[in-house]
Amino acid sequence: MHELAFPLLVGLIVVALAFDFLNGLHDAANAIATVVATRLLRPVTAVAFAAFFNFAAYFLALQWPQLHSVANTIGKGLIDKDLVTPAVVFGALIGAMFWNVVTWVKGLPSSSSHALVGGIIGAGVAHAGLPSIQWVGLNKTLIAIVLSPLLGMILTMAIMLVTSWMGVRASASGAEKTLRTLHLCSSGVYCLSHGLNDAQKTMGIITVLLYSTGYLHGDFQVPHWVALSCYVAIGLGTLSGGWRIIETMGTRITKLSQHQGFSASAGGSIMLFAASWLGIPVSTTHTITGCVIGAGAARRASAVRWGVAKSVMIAWIITIPASAIVAALFYYLISGYGARALLAAAVIALFFFAAAAWREFKLHQSGRGKFAAWIAAVGFLIAAAIITYGVFA
């Protein structure tokens, strides 16, 4: 058990709820992207609609406690809960929040969930080394990175196929009216499943903080006041909006009809409820993006703007390592490891240099220019890997 003054404990809980609020601001926009893109609801109405259902997930979890398994995975399934300290929690939260802000400013729908996973892993490894990692929980999460958008895409295409066959004899006006109603219902269910899965990540962080400081007695279970606070925070974050990410998710990847919007929301709902039941902290952003791509590809492959989808996928790939490095940096800073903090800052700088070199690679027309930019990008990444190995080895 680690001693922590009560005012500092309250401060860390506030930081965790601030992350949850930012999660609502950053991620919950994905839940309403389809209804905004299809003009089913006005943006302001859609935001209030999503916030209501995000919070309503609390009552769903009261009825079926098994749906709160994700909080256990975050709290004790990634890093050994007995090795977690307040400094680890602080570093994890700051690392995740930093990456959320960067991608929010850039309008990229990266994953708040995986930013938090990266933050936990980075701060935990900085504190106790690689043996602190719970590989079963981490592997489950890493597999979900690949499977959640893929399965979401396949499931959405299947829903479109089945519903198209069912409505083959319906009139155009009748089908449109029915699909608008179904789309609204499926979006509500998706917002419910979104709030259920995403709010639990902060619950897990706060619960392991209470456990590590001796304020949680008995079994490792989420207190009701923690659950309620997290659902309120993510709901308020949703009310604050996330317009740039809505634009990317709803219109820049592909243009959606009511049929496609319904199919994407329905497919995403099934995926997220299954993930919550299995205790997998799946990325809601990944899931709905895969579903939106599936809805566009079901019409025709050219309907999907694959360039935008590619940039989104690149943001996904770098989310966990980027947030992990920032989390380790802040852990070192507050733990008195100045030299290691400087090395972590150097790794972050090298990643930015590599990104800049890659951008030059894409812009150059000449073969020599492309080759030089490619060598620079690879060199920066190798240097970052060497420093990272030296810090954590």
From N to C, what is the helix and strand string?
HHHHHHHHHHHHHHH
Low-confidence stretches: none
Q: Any idea what the shape is?
A: globular
The radius of gyration is: 21 Å
End-to-end Cα distance: 26 Å
Molecular structure report:
The protein has helices spanning about 5-25, 35, 45-65, 70-75, 85-105, 110-130, 135-165, 170-210, 225-240, 245-250, 260-280, 285-300, 305-335, 340-365, 365-390. The longest helix has about 40 residues, at about 170-210. Helix content is about 80%, strand content about 0%. The chain is built from 15 helices and no strands. The two termini are about 25 Å apart.
Give a short synopsis of this structure.
By secondary structure, this protein is mainly α. Helix content is 79%, strand content 0%. The protein has helices at 6-27, 33-37, 43-63, 69-76, 86-106, 112-128, 135-166, 172-212, 224-239, 243-252, 258-278, 284-299, 306-335, 338-363, 367-392.
